[in-house]
Amino acid sequence: MAKRKNQHKNQPAVAAKTGATGAGPDVMSPAQTIAWWCIHGLVLIVPLIMSNWTWLGFSLPLTYDQFDIIKVFVQRGLTLIALGAWSWHMLTKGGRLRRTKIDYVVLALLAWVLLTSILSIQPSIAFFGKYRRFEGFISFVNYAAIFFMVTQFADRASRIRSLARTLFFGGTLVSLYGMMQYIGIDPVKWGNLPFEANRAFSTYGNPDLLGGYLVFPLAISLALALSEENIKWRATYWMGFLITVACWIIAFTRGAWIGGTLAIILIIIVAVRHRIKLNVVDYSFVGAIGAVATGLVIVSLSAASQVMNVVARVVSIFDFGDASAASRFRIWQAAIDAIKDRPVFGFGADTFRLIFPQYKSIEYVQQVGYLSVADNVHNYPLQIASALGIPGFLLLYGTFAAAAWFSAPLVFRKHEGAERMVLAGFWAAAAGYLAHLMFGISVTGSSFLLWVAMAVVLSPLAKSVEIRAPRWGTPVAVTCLVLVAVLSVGNVVYITADNHYLKARVYSQGAARVAEIERAIALNPYNDMYRTELGVAHVDITVSLVTQGRELSAQGQNTDALKQQALVSFTKAEAALKEAIAFVPWEYDNYVFLANLYNLGADFLDPAYGEKAIAIAERGVEVEEYGPAIRFQLARALQRAGRTDEALEHIEFAVEMDPKYAEAVLLMANLYKETGRIEKAREAYELVLRRRPDYPGVQAELDALESSSSTP
Fold it and tell me: Is the dihedral of CA 85, 89, 91, 97 positive or negative?
């Protein structure tokens, strides 16, 4: 493209009236209109979308991951369309290219994320992101693209305000749904939730993630209310702020409370500096909000769970001995140790789940149990430093700091008028969200708004370059549209794969289940969870065949045919789990699954599999030293091999790490009994019964032990 004029600096957006189209001050071409509406769609639809539509009569959700993957799908799809439409306009008609002061830093960040992804311990995850997180290299590219597109269009006060208004309506709807959940009205069918009943999670699937998102509409709705002159709209914004405050409280997310409070304080500071005058509507809503917030706090005091007690939850922020805080500190320490090992390039974006087993402490396991694994640091600076290295952390947080530094004078300058409040809303939202990320999790469904906010606050300072449409623009524009179409198809394939994964996990059985997961892998071969599921599906078939064989054998029937079928299924399970381990060697769970398979094979198919169980379990111990589950499998295999003392050593360590692990305690009891340590065996059996009174066979073992010990 050829430059028509020299670069020149725009007037601030709050005063700018010139358009970006070359076709008039407020006229956009059809292509630009499409791009602009896609930006609005991002802000509105991404927070609202989820794949569970059972309230419309569907029997199942669209995807297994009902929240993050569908948000990523919509986000990438709308970004692609926006980029394609904008490129078409620029290549065929020309126009203004707007640039901010941090563009080169953003490009440097993308280059660094790409380099660290190539050098990652698991490049596939570093590129695409971990399942249910998806914050790999592609997501960083998407953030940058959104930042770029918002910069191109948010060139005046009216557009910035319209974007804020869209965010307001989306946030209000998300908050309303969260309030419905709190009072027990939820039209959507959910399974067992891994958190307290009636705690709001809305369209984010997790109260912590919901709380982080709410920082944005919380700040924007307040800024809109304080800057609106029309009384009806002002009341509308205040009502949205009230609803958002209520949902923000009942998410019971401490990091979000901290971030949201910071955002509100910043907006109040700007309002005072701009001499915003309050009226009767404002005072009425301030009183109503205070009353609602007080009421929710009072109601929470009688909650059975301390998590849903606002006062207890706030006090726990300052209680560093709190169990939740202690586990969080141990995760942070694991991240710090990981950073020390690879301070320059890190381990790759979104790989923390893989490295955590290598760095977690025994105290963490003792506190949270053998099933817990941290797939996120719950501290974004540490998350980024462990993933991208210290240079990556400096580039990303340098981007945030530069955006804040350059835009702060524009936002905080005195007596600039009410309209500047909207910019302050975006500035405060970004600051509040970053504060939340010191204690929370970054997911693409919320973090893209951080990049939207940065683009908005920097947009008034952007420089423009007039671009003339080149003679070869149309062919290139067509090529861009073809590329957008291809990538969009890939985006659809990506989510279709998860639909097959859903079918494999939820209702398909046997061969049908295997076929569904094989389709998922064929469509998306880069998701390691799909590969693991294939192995588990074959394991379940093997277990079913072995169980049938045992029943027939007990009836005196011939089981050779079933045994042969079980062997075939066993071989497929072994191959699938080996392939999963080869694909992602750092994933601890796969070693547990394969060791369990070999132990199963040794018990019912061929004792020779016992040595394989020992070998793979020992590899698993190398991956996760403080892993009770792999120690349990290793102890099983060693017991079968007659290496009782070694088996006891590993199982005692497993129980020391997690005394609530009933299967491990039972195996320890059996080993004590086998080695004649009757009193210790009795104590272990009693421990199992205290934890699991209905555990099959344990009471009989204890009775037999008592009977034998009382026999003269």
Answer: negative
Tokens 């981007």 identify what position?
A: 399
Contacts from 33-37 at CB under 8 Å and sequence distance 24+? 34/81, 34/82, 34/85, 35/81, 35/82, 35/83, 35/85, 35/86, 35/89, 35/149, 35/152, 35/153, 36/153, 36/159
The superfamily (CATH) of domain 659-712 is: Tetratricopeptide repeat domain (1.25.40.10)
- Do the Cβ atoms of 633 and 613 come closer than 8 Å? yes
SS3 assignment for 666-679: HHHHHHHHHCCCHH
Sequence ranges of the chain with CATH classification 1.25.40.10: 527-650, 659-712
Q: Please give the structure tokens belonging to residue 499.
A: 């639909």
Hey, CA dihedral for 37, 42, 44, 48, is it positive or negative? positive
* 22 backbone φψ class: left, alpha, beta (φ>0; ψ -120 to 50): left
CB 349 within 8 A of CB 136: yes
Structure tokens, 130: 């971990």
Burial class (CB in 10 A: 0-12, 13-18, 19+), 502: buried
**Residue 667: which of 641, 647, 683 has the closest Cα?**
647
Tokens of 439: 């204690």
In the chain, the amino acid numbered 99 is: R
**3-class secondary-structure state, position 192:** coil
| CATH ID of 527-650, from 1.50.10.10, 1.25.40.10, 3.40.50.970, 1.10.10.350 | 1.25.40.10
CA distances in angstroms from 598 to 45, 132, 429, 618, listed in the order given: 47, 30, 53, 13
| pLDDT tens profile 382-432 | 999 999 999 999 999 999 999 999 999 999 987 666 678 999 999 999 999
Alpha carbon 297 to its chain's center: 28
Structure tokens at 708: 């034998």
pLDDT of residue 5: 38
Residues 468-483 have pLDDT tens digits of 999 899 999 999 999 9
* Euclidean distance between CA atoms 58 and 489, whole angstroms: 24
Q: Which two tokens stand for residue 652?
A: 């005692």
pLDDT band at 56 (very low <50, low <70, confident <90, very high): confident
What b-and-e string marks burial along 647-662, b requiring 16 or more CB atoms within 10 Å of the CB?
Answer: bbebbbbbbebbbebb
What's the rounded Cα separation, in Å, for the pair 283 and 261? 19
Range list of H helices, 61-136: 68-92, 103-118, 123-128
Which of these, 412, 418, 50, lies nearest to 225 by C-alpha position? 418
Is 7 exposed, middle or buried (CB count within 10 Å of its CB: 0-12, 13-18, 19+)?
exposed
Asked whether the beta carbons of 245 and 292 are under 8 A apart, the reply is yes
Q: Give pLDDT, residue 344.
A: 98
Q: Which helix (H) or strand (E) holds 533?
A: helix 528-554
Please work out, in degrees rounded to the nearest 5, the angle formed at the alpha carbon of residue 34 by the alpha carbons of 102 and 14: 50
Query: What Rg, from alpha-carbon coordinates, does the chain have?
Result: 29
CB atoms within 10 A of CB 423: 29
3-state SS assignment for residue 44: helix
Question: H or E segment at 170?
Answer: helix 157-182
Helical segments of 369-506, H only: 380-412, 420-437, 444-458, 473-506
Which of the two residues, 197 and 622, has the higher pLDDT score? Answer: 622
